[in-house]
Specification:
heterodimer; A: 349 residues; alpha/beta; Rossmann fold; 6-stranded parallel beta sheet; two-stranded antiparallel ribbon; 13 helices; 42% helix; 11% strand; globular; disordered N terminus; B: 323 residues; 2 domains; 12 helices
Chain lengths: 349, 323
Amino acid sequence: MTTNRHTEVDMAISDRSVAAVPKEELSALLHKMMLIRRFEQKAAEMYARGRIKGFLHLYTGQEATGVGIISRLRDDDYLYSHYREHGHALARGLEPRAVMAELFGKSTGASRGFGGSMHIFDKSRRFMGGYAIVSSHLPLACGTALACKQLGTDSVTAAIFGDGAVNEGSFHESLNLAAIWHLPVLFVCENNFYGMGTRVNRVTATPEIYKRAEVYGIRSERVDGMDVIAVRERADHALQAVRRGEGPAFIETITYRYRGHSMADPEFYREKSEVEHWRGLDPIDRFTDALLRANVSQGEIDEIQNRVESEIDDAARFAEESPFPPVESLTDHVYAPSPLDVRPPGGGR
Amino acid sequence: MAEMAIRDALRDAIRERMLVDERVIVMGEDIGAYGGSYGVTRGLLEEFGPERIRDTPISELGFVGTGIGAAVGGLRPVVEIMTINFSFLAMDQIVNNASKIHYMFGGQVSVPLIIRMASGAGLSTGAQHSHSVEGWFAHIPGLKVVCPSNAADAKGLLRTAFEDGNPIIFIENTALYSLRGEVPDGDYHVPFGQARVAREGTDVTLIGYSGSVYQALGCADQLAEEDIQAEVIDLRTLRPLDTDAVVKSVKKTNHAVVIEHAWRFGGFGAEVAAQIQEHTFDDLDAPVARVAGVEVPMPYSFELEKAALPSESQVVEAVRAMF
């Protein structure tokens, strides 16, 4: 049994917790985590081959957090994310094809090629986008939650962000607004210990991030973010409270990214041994072990892995073969249609 | 027709919309119990209650972003930023989110949001409360920038803003809230991108918006005594800009002066001047002149502040130099 020195929680997934989850759901959780893992490997490969440009931030290592949280959201809930959001998009049910095509800048991408890796969006799944200004999506989440409340629905808005977000003014302003207005927001901080290359405790007073929410009167807890079952269970608990109208909730997940901040990161700031330590706590390996103990057969697990392989191959092929957006579409949707406008915006003649 | 102050015309437009559309809410600092720093929202809390008239913390980044998210989520928020000076705190939300959400997500959602704010100098409010940076917002594709100069336009433009599906930066002038004017009855709108000829003339075109329209009109009176007939154009909206109206006038008068309270260097007036020379180069009898603020933070002391702002005599001088 391994003890995580950061969370001091039991690092073996409890068999009792696993037994409480329906089997098809266990398979779905494993499938999503494997899908994300493989997707990111393929994305890195395509980046190296020049198919993907710009910034690419991989989610590898953090799968249990995104999958655990998002698995408990309802279809009519909203989800906002940051720029490391491929995993969240896939967990939310976006097709790997649409996500990969967006990375390729193709018109078949989730944002029609206009967004890129950091700005994936799908209105039909209420996946409200990846945002590349740290913490800037938290006020948006408060707003969508306010709309839900005001329109009389019981939809919840979840906002996922990193430990790097918690020293931004927008983080504190959002927590305050959500608290005073009792907004149905689930704040999820993925604490992977590094804001880019700066370790969280070097730059964060009260590095126990969940405590920051407590001072706003928000129910808050820390969970082992490498344990998908634990994350799922705590998310369920928090979401139920938020949905009952008890105001916002906050979850800090302790997790780790195996890859650099982006593809350009030489990783001078951490030891290889640290990365290895966390790889030893791999969320997919741990979950697979727990499933085997729960009498899921190796054959079933292999089947999921094979399915993932073909899904990702298909996604890459689809992205490769899809067309780029036509240059004529450059100025499409700068503005939403407005019937009363008499001339094009921007002083054009 | 009814005569009313600009603040009352604005309130009328908000109130009538709130009566017919439950999705309209108003958020901002001291807009409820206090009644609004400039009195625009007075009485609305009593009529519509605290769920729809929401006093916010002093937290511009937070509540502007909340307004954006609420618009995306199906409300039709009006966010009041007490003054344009405080909008700087919310610039990330306005520029990185409001203006880009429709475009960067491939047109999947829009941001039907009105952000109102008070702008301008001349009231001895010092360096940090006297900005006229309308041009900053006008620089951003995805935003529309509205600057009414009178009560009728304030109401008509705000009605149009409510029917637009985009983020509208609606900039009011601190010095003009009490200015009274005739407001037409009935359901009239002032479309965006349609400038107003505030005074007809044949010899020179004076172009302004918001407060500078009144300086232009004052100059036109003075110039008339010298037998120079000035045409005054009130731009009403900076983005979209009614280039056609400006060009049409300058083709007639062959002279143009752009007047603005903002700093001259890199200001919105430079854009207007550039448009004029691009479209009317062969019709111009003199270079396009700009009269704008002096390149200093606004000083408090009264005579210094006056000297920092464009004056009618500077405009008159600029025109005289053309003839």
